[in-house]
């Protein structure tokens, strides 16, 4: 039962996240930030995660707190749902083409958070959404999910395509890493005996 529910409330945001790692990619995400909801939908669909996200945030200030705090809550839910990580493949990678954009993501569900990020955006905003928040989301998600995550934008012209390819690439890499290894379904994937 690789599932988790997280509630996180601060002076800036009120968030609930439900996550099922063995889902089919169904989603119901509502953060009040339309483009970000679209990106979360991509993450769920392409990682085959069943995901429900609700966020009420201080959007009158800007989208930053909502995007970052959802990343925190999703990372916490991922950590909780993985448990001791017994049986997972642990590593995943993906080259994701989307029209003009090509993004590479490689990750390790190591418990050691790190974000290597080189994803140039060609515009500062996508319909009012600050493109720098894509990195902020993944920084929070990697930190609180205990993920070593490297993401590189190899090419791209359209920032919408670049951002969406980024979410899809991470999703596909995450899907591979979370899959059960049939040859070691009862083992923790580390010579240390724990992750």
Number of helical segments with 4 or more residues: 4
Proportion in β-strands: 25-35%
Distance between the termini: 19 Å
Strand order of the largest sheet: 1-2-4-3
Dominant shape: globular
The beta-strand count equals: 10
The helicity comes to: 25-40%
Broad structural category: alpha+beta
Q: On the 0-100 scale, what is the average pLDDT?
A: 97
Outline the biggest β-sheet.
4 strands, mixed
Please give the radius of gyration in angstroms: 16 Å
Low-confidence stretches: none
The ordered string of helix (H) and strand (E) elements is EEEHEHEEEEEHEH
Relevant terms:
195 residues; alpha+beta; four-stranded mixed beta sheet; 10 strands; 34% helix; 31% strand; globular
């Amino acid at each position: 039962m690789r599932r988790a529910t997280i509630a996180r409330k601060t002076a800036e945001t009120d968030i609930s996240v439900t996550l099922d790692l063995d889902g089919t990619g169904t989603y119901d995400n509502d953060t009040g930030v339309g483009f970000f909801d679209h990106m979360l939908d991509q993450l769920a669909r392409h990682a085959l995660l069943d995901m429900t996200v609700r966020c009420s945030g201080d959007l009158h200030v800007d989208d930053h707190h909502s995007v970052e705090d959802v990343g925190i809550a999703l990372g916490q839910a991922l950590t909780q749902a993985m448990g001791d990580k017994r049986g997972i493949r642990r590593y995943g990678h993906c080259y994701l083409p989307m029209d003009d954009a090509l993004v590479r993501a490689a990750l390790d569900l190591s418990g050691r958070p790190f974000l290597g990020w080189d994803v140039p955006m060609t515009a500062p905003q996508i319909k009012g959404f600050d493109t720098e928040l894509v990195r902020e989301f993944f920084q929070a998600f990697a930190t609180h999910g205990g993920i070593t995550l490297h993401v590189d934008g190899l090419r791209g012209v359209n920032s919408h395509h670049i951002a969406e390819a980024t979410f899809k690439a991470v999703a596909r890499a995450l899907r591979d890493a979370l899959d059960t290894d049939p040859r070691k379904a009862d083992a923790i994937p580390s010579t240390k005996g724990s992750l």
